[in-house]
Write a structure and sequence with these properties.
6-stranded antiparallel beta sheet, elongated, 25% helix, single chain, alpha/beta, 5-stranded parallel beta sheet, 11 strands
Length: 226
Amino acid sequence: MKKIKGRMDESILVCVYYGPNGERLIRRGHKLADMLDCPLYILTVDTRPHDEFDAEKSSYIERWEELADELDAEEFIIRDSERSSVRAIKEVAHNHNITQIVIGQSPQNRWEEITKGSFSNMLLRAMTFIDIHIVSIDRTLKGVEMDDTSYEKGVRGFLRPDKDSYRLFFTRSKENLYEGIFYKETGTDFNNGIFKFIAHGKTCQVHITEDVVTGKMVEPPNLKKS
């Protein structure tokens, strides 16, 4: 049984979509809820049905659910098959008496891809009398040894065996062994950057130079042979 929060006139909703920044947003929302001693809710919205989520999205959701339990959130909410993210958030906010919403904002914001517009502006117009906290997401990826390196918007990619290494592709194939998100370095004509993927519930990454993985793949493949 969850303990009763001190302030029931305040209620925090964290909206997460896709990628490693979700955990950062959840922890930011928890810090705010802990400071106000009020309930915390976590929401993810997707246009696809839940049973059609790919392995990576499912892994992120599992991690977010674990984090919701760890941080004593009131509820982790999944709204799938939604055509409008803003409408879904508005309904959840109304149903749970939300007073403050936490979202992520960056030039690579996935929410903006879903809504095909400025998500934060649309949300601000729709959410009257609700405070919106827009958390800036770093362009640089943690663990990269180049301080000022920035990356383009992530795209889905795959790794296939290539001689003694693995090569990056962007099409599905039975030969693919890894599925993840490729972040290309800005200012380069070649596919140089970072390939991030989920293995055993944790986020892993390898460097890509001219389509080829540099270094050794330690984690086992995350795609099953059909």
